Structures are given as C-alpha cells and as structure tokens.
C-alpha cells in the first residue's frame, strides 16, 4: 500500500482533473441507466406484440449478448486500453439509439437493441476498472461509487417521464440517446487520459508518469503511485 504524504488529508488530494475524469467516465453509466430504462418500455411492442416466436428469439439473442458482451469488453480493454474501450460505450449507445428509433421492422429493431445492450455492458465492465486505476487509493473508495450513482440517476430520469405514445418514445430516444452519446464520446476523447495501470503493463512509463502527475497533487505522490503500480504489475507477471 502507498504511504500517505504528511500534511495532505485524503480528500484534499482529489485533484480537479481526477474528479473531472471520474465524472466523465461515469456519464457512460448514466447513459446505461437511461438506456436500460428505455429498453424496458413498450417500444418493443411495435414489432413483437402477441408474437411468441419473435419474443423467444429476441430473448435468446439478448441472453447471449448479456454473456458475451462483458467478456468482450474485458478482453478488449486489456488489448487496446481502458480509455478506448470506454469510448466504445457511447458509440454503441449512439448507433443503437439511432437504429432502434428508425427501425422499420423487427430485425432492425433487435439489431439496435443489441447495440444498446453492448454499450451497457461496456459501460459497466470498463468504467469501474478505469476509475480504480486512475484514482489514488485514498480517494478511490469515493470515486468508484460514481458509476452506481450515475446509473441510478439515469434509470430514475427515464422512469420519471411517462411514455405517452410509441411515436413520442421513438422521438425521445433519438434525441436523448444519440446526440448526448456523441457529445460524450467527443468530450471523453479529448479529456480522458489512458489508465496509468494499463500504460505501465505496456511499458509506457513516461506516459504513465504524465498521467499520474496530472492526477496527483505533487511529484512525490506521483512517484509513490508509479512505484506501487510497477510493483503490482511485476507481481502479476511473476504470478
């Protein structure tokens, strides 16, 4: 474990940059909660009402994606990094929202639904890992609660507004799903750094040091965190 630096209470070491990154990353959980609520509304009745075969097929594909998508998210985050894997979540949301909103038939609707479901899986699988690896251990307990809080807010927001008619649901999904997802993806692309933990495992120590410097209140703290990350990476490789 890292030793606390004298003179700095735990929460005082939470830099604005670290807090901003945690909030931006957790907004994927907000969208996930919002989309999860939308996926539970009556929009699917447009294409599956009173058709047991379509419902069974839909549930089968949904169950398969619920199993495979988190595995894919975890594997991909190890291969290409936490940052780019996290960016895929709002991208899936934007395409999924657009496809389901404009779906002319059952097949297209299910395709859009599965895209949204994949976005939810990526948000849930990667956000926690990213925030954990980005934040100091003495503020991690606080920052890692953000995804659950933002998820709950998103789900609550969706269920607060009544679903008046199918047409209005489709229009609201197009506006509330696609546009914010695109904006979030751009904000994350130009703001979020890569996880220092992942950078160290790839031997990119200079990049990891830059990220740690931006997320620490002093160079001493950054060096301590880098040493801890390197030790953890070496232990994992030797184990």
From TrEMBL:
<feature type="transmembrane region" description="Helical">
    <location>
        <begin position="169"/>
        <end position="192"/>
    </location>
</feature>
<dbReference type="GO" id="GO:0015144">
    <property type="term" value="F:carbohydrate transmembrane transporter activity"/>
</dbReference>
<dbReference type="InterPro" id="IPR036259">
    <property type="entry name" value="MFS_trans_sf"/>
</dbReference>
<dbReference type="InterPro" id="IPR020846">
    <property type="entry name" value="MFS_dom"/>
</dbReference>
<feature type="transmembrane region" description="Helical">
    <location>
        <begin position="84"/>
        <end position="103"/>
    </location>
</feature>
<dbReference type="InterPro" id="IPR005829">
    <property type="entry name" value="Sugar_transporter_CS"/>
</dbReference>
<comment type="similarity">
    <text>Belongs to the major facilitator superfamily. Sugar transporter (TC 2.A.1.1) family.</text>
</comment>
<dbReference type="InterPro" id="IPR005828">
    <property type="entry name" value="MFS_sugar_transport-like"/>
</dbReference>
<keyword id="KW-0812">Transmembrane</keyword>
<feature type="transmembrane region" description="Helical">
    <location>
        <begin position="109"/>
        <end position="131"/>
    </location>
</feature>
<keyword id="KW-0813">Transport</keyword>
<dbReference type="Pfam" id="PF00083">
    <property type="entry name" value="Sugar_tr"/>
</dbReference>
<keyword id="KW-0472">Membrane</keyword>
<feature type="domain" description="Major facilitator superfamily (MFS) profile">
    <location>
        <begin position="1"/>
        <end position="239"/>
    </location>
</feature>
<dbReference type="GO" id="GO:0016020">
    <property type="term" value="C:membrane"/>
</dbReference>
<keyword id="KW-1133">Transmembrane helix</keyword>
<dbReference type="InterPro" id="IPR045262">
    <property type="entry name" value="STP/PLT_plant"/>
</dbReference>
<feature type="transmembrane region" description="Helical">
    <location>
        <begin position="57"/>
        <end position="77"/>
    </location>
</feature>
<protein>
    <submittedName>
        <fullName>Polyol transporter 2</fullName>
    </submittedName>
</protein>
